[in-house]
Every structure is written in structure tokens, then in C-alpha cells.
Amino acid sequence: MFKRIKEEIAVVFERDPAARNTWEVITCYPGIHAIVLHRFAHWLWQLQLRWPARFVSHITRWLTGIEIHPGATIGQRFFIDHGMGVVIGETAEIGDDCTLYHGVTLGGTSWSRGKRHPTLGNGVVVGAGAKILGPINVGEGAHIGSNAVVVKAVPPGATAVGIPARIIEKEAGEKAGFTAYAVGSDMNDPVSRAIHELIDHGVATDKRLELILAHLQKLGVDCADSAERERFDAGYLNKIVD
Questions:
Q1: How far apart are CA 126 and CA 120, in angstroms?
Q2: What pairing do the DSSP bridges indicate for beta strands 166-170 and 149-150?
Q3: What is the distance between the alpha carbons of residues 183 and 233, in angstroms, rounded to a whole number?
Q4: pLDDT value of residue 140
Q5: What is the chain's mean pLDDT, rounded?
Q6: Which residues are within 8 A (CB) of 15 and not within 5 positions of it... i.e. 6 or more apart?
Q7: How many CB atoms lie within 10 A of CB 221?
Q8: Angstrom distances, CA of residue 218 to CA of 48, 84, 128, 224
């Protein structure tokens, strides 16, 4: 137990540059308080002491602003940064070395009993405000961007952003490394890329139409009405898409 707590304190220094010393982490980090109390509540839950387990969870929520159901299974070196508003449901499963930021929800989408909350593989990072809903799997090393709403499985090493979330890149977890809030400045959004391609296609189509009209005019066809129209401003459209 104490070895596990030491590991989780050490993780704070790895993932939060604001951490200055061990005493500060022990006394001032609600994520540490929440996970330590959850370990106790989960132990009570496994002993079928359901009401005491729920009461410990309730007190933890009151003290930290983090709500973790005592039935949730959480691996080693788990880190909740800031923490306020985090909700983790009863059948959620979280692997080792995962990181959650404030406002994250691992929620269910059904009122039926049984598995109804997400499963996170090892090394998953979930950005602030993200919602992962239903009994879906988030693969090892995956990143969930801030405020994303995930309702489908995420492959290992992938990054998902948006509402509903879409995959924007896929790479090995070791290569990706730790990215705060699970987003970076070099994200390659497939929707943005598709819009740029449509704009480029529109420009190419305009050029073909202008060429066709020029040839028709040479043949004596009156194309004055067709030629007079507002020009397609590709530069402006590409700029606002970025």
C-alpha cells in the first residue's frame, strides 16, 4: 500500500512541473487524496461492505471535488491533475500510468446493470472536460483531447478530438510521449484537411470553367452573364478554416 502511494506521489513530479516538494503534494493535491481514499473505498467494496464504501466515496467527493465510484478499478501510477469535476463510474476500468485532467467524465449510457462504463488501457491521457461514454475501449497510449466526447472505441496510440470525437493521428504510445491535455500544436485534423481539399478542388473547377467559357466566347457564344459572378476567395477560406 505504502509503496503504491510513493509511486503515485513520484508520478506527480513527473507530470506536473508546478509540484515543488513531497509535503506540498501530500497536503495540497486533491488527486492524491482522491486516489488514496478510493483505494480504501474499493477495498471495502470488494469485501461487500457497500454502504461504508459509498460513504467513503461520498466524503472524498465532498473533500476533493472528485467522484470515483468505489466499484471502479484503477491501476498503478494513476494521476488526476487539478481534479475538480472528475467523475468515474462504477464499472470503469483504468490501466496503469493513466492521466486525467479536471472535468473528465468516464460515464455510462445505459440504465441496465452490467458493464456500462469505459475501459482505459495503460498510458492513456484524457484532456480537461473530455467525456468518454459507454462500455467502450480506449487503447493503450491513446490521447483524448480536451472537451472531446468519445462514444466509439479509440485504437491504441491514437488521438481523438471533437464532438463526437474523431481520430486525428495514430502513433505508438512510446513515440507520442506525454502530452499535457492530450493535444499539441501539430495536430492534423482530418475534417480541416478535407475542407482544404474541397477548397482546392473548387479553385481548380473555377479555372476549368473559365477556360471553357473563354473557348465558347471565341466560338461566338455569348457567355457574358455566366462570366459575371463573385470570385471564389480560396485564400480567405483557407485562412478561416485554419
A1: 10
A2: unpaired
A3: 31
A4: 94
A5: 84
A6: 79, 81, 99, 178
A7: 10
A8: 89, 71, 61, 12
Task: Find where cell 483504468 sits.
Answer: 94
Determine the Cα angle at 36 with ends 34 and 41, to 5°.
85
Most confident of 23-32, 36-45, 188-197: 36-45
Distance from CA of residue 160 to its chain's centroid? Answer: 6
Identity of the amino acid at 11: V
Bigger pLDDT: 127 vs 240: 127
- Residue range 39-97, pLDDT digits in tens: 999 999 999 999 999 999 999 999 999 999 999 999 999 999 988 999 999 999 999 99
With H, G, I as helix, E, B as strand and everything else as coil, classify residue 161: strand
With b meaning 16 or more CB within 10 Å and e meaning fewer, what string describes 146-174?
A: bbbbbeebbebbbbbbbeebbebbeeebe
Handedness of CA 52, 58, 59, 65 (dihedral sign): positive
Helix-helix angle 30-46:2-15, to 10 degrees:
150
Pair 92, 119: CB distance under 8 Å:
yes
The three-state (H, E, C) secondary structure of 25-80, written as one string: HHHHCHHHHHHHHHHHHHHHHHCCCHHHHHHHHHHHHHHHCCEECCCCEECCCCEE
170 vs 142: CA distance, rounded Å: 8
Q: What is the pLDDT of residues 198-224, one digit of tens each?
A: 877 777 777 787 788 777 777 777 766
pTM: 0.74
Position 228 scores a pLDDT of 57
Beta carbons within 8 Å of 92's beta carbon, 6+ residues apart: 69, 72, 73, 106, 117, 118, 119, 120
